Amino acid sequence: MKVVKTVKEVREIVAGWRKEGLTVGLVPTMGFLHEGHQSLIRKSASQNDRTVVSVFVNPIQFGPNEDLEAYPRDLNRDMQKVEEAGGNLIFNPEPAEMYPGHFTSFIDTTETTELLCGAVRPVHFRGVCTVVGKLFNIVCPDRAYFGQKDAQQLATVKRFVRDLNFPVEIVPCPIVREDDGLAKSSRNTYLNADERQAALILSKSLKLGKQAIEAGERDAQKVIDIIRKNLETEPMARIDYVEVVDFENIQRTASIQGEVLVAIAVYIGKTRLIDNFIVNI
Amino acid sequence: MKVVKTVKEVREIVAGWRKEGLTVGLVPTMGFLHEGHQSLIRKSASQNDRTVVSVFVNPIQFGPNEDLEAYPRDLNRDMQKVEEAGGNLIFNPEPAEMYPGHFTSFIDTTETTELLCGAVRPVHFRGVCTVVGKLFNIVCPDRAYFGQKDAQQLATVKRFVRDLNFPVEIVPCPIVREDDGLAKSSRNTYLNADERQAALILSKSLKLGKQAIEAGERDAQKVIDIIRKNLETEPMARIDYVEVVDFENIQRTASIQGEVLVAIAVYIGKTRLIDNFIVNI
């Protein structure tokens, strides 16, 4: 698996592909790849002639008290995972390659970033939009792949791509889960054995909310209450948020109609986990 | 001269050119074109196979008390001017085409926008960066042309293009002046006969500053004083700013060395005019 470190190198390789008339997919990641990422790479490989996977722990999307330093990294493992899933190139820049001196420009979007993770991680989505916009300009892909696991990120990327006319198609991909229901996440590696067991409360509680909607419940607050009540049965869980929002704008909705995102963030010990489902009614 | 109104149309035309292997230049303008704009179009036509001129009075770069409504518009005249100068296509979107409902994403850059016009026009450069970034994504030009007349805008566009890796070369073009020295500007049309005469004080005062530097003056404050003192001899002139900054970062410099921008903004009656020169020592 070829790994390049500089903007110049990735551009030269993609320009060569373009000359051959090949299409290009991009899967932006922070590395420590799991089957969730691999599902994005596989999707890209099925829709494009070539797939670039960026592996970059983006410092500007971490707040001052977040886990930038602790975030797990293993490039050799990532190379294997990309190979397995059918990717063609890893772009793995150093922070100084992405953020040279006097770096002072940002892409930001407001509406979709106000609630959920945006409310508690104030610089997070500015960092996400900026690095994703940079990657679009570096790779110039036809399509880019984002997991529904980070549903607010997906809605936010879709918004800034539309607003700023980036010539790239955003392809959403479903959440990949462990056999017992836990959503795959690089941060799951932080969990000890007890926490790993306790973390099941997220997917289990969401399932109860989804069942209520499927049984006809349309009152968002009642769905929230069902989920919160179940989350509270787990002594190791501390709720950050339980929200019901319209998926396009990420604004609260009182009744469940249209495309609705039910999203939760829960601390298990010191590890903050997120999970969600989307319904379309 | 072909004029298109939608993103879709301009993309289709440019895609056709690309298929033929042609290079594309972009000249972003707010219309009411004069010889300054035409010099950009000519430069683009000399360096690219095809030149797109955008004509769009961009609402989001005007503050609430600025001249958005009054800003002069004349598309038929602009079509002639583009034709004369060798442009191939005008992109003239309606505001709703550029800013649809729930438009909430912006490109912003801090350092180069703090002083000069950025200090008195707080949303101006966010609006400029956003519309220019959109135009880059819509047209995907090889090169884009900006006049040194708007020197802070030029430095700001260069900065965000570098920071966000937009794959476009920024080509700066010198100021074009009337025979008597007044820098060409669409806003000159606001001046009555007396104001038009009084407006000469801008270029005359800058000339004195430039002569002082050429004679060996390296103290920025002394150059500022020479320019201010001369501007104050014109009763119809009201100084907004006189500044000496390094051109790359648009930060104040005490001594004149390297690439230095000497920039002024002066009200003549109700009309705010800007002018500048750059030295490289």
Quick summary:
The structure is a homodimer of 281-residue chains. Chain A is of the alpha/beta class and 281 residues long.
Q: What keyword list fits this structure?
A:
alpha/beta, homodimer, 4-stranded antiparallel β-sheet, globular, 281 residues, 6-stranded parallel β-sheet, Rossmann fold, Pantoate--beta-alanine Ligase, Chain: A,domain 2, 10 helices
Portion of residues in helices of chain A?
A: 25-40%
The quaternary state of the protein chains shown equals homodimer
Strand order of the largest sheet of chain A: 1-4-3-2-6-7
Structural class of chain A: alpha/beta
Tally of alpha and pi helices of chain A: 10
Shape of chain A: globular
Predict the CATH topology of the largest domain in chain A: Rossmann fold
Order of helices and strands of chain A: EHEHEHEHEHHEHEHHHEEEE
Domain count of chain A: the total is 2
The pLDDT mean of chain A sits at: 97
- Gap from first CA to last CA of chain A: 43 Å
* Percent range for β-strand residues of chain A: 15-25%
CATH class term of the largest domain in chain A: Alpha Beta
Tell me how many strands of chain A there are. 11
Task: Please tell me how large the radius of gyration of chain A is.
Answer: 19 Å
In the CATH hierarchy, what is the superfamily of the largest domain in chain A? HUPs
Catalytic activity (chains A, B): (R)-pantoate + beta-alanine + ATP = (R)-pantothenate + AMP + diphosphate + H(+)
EC number (chains A, B): 6.3.2.1
Organism (chains A, B): Xylanibacter ruminicola (Prevotella ruminicola)
Pfam families (chains A, B): Pantoate_ligase
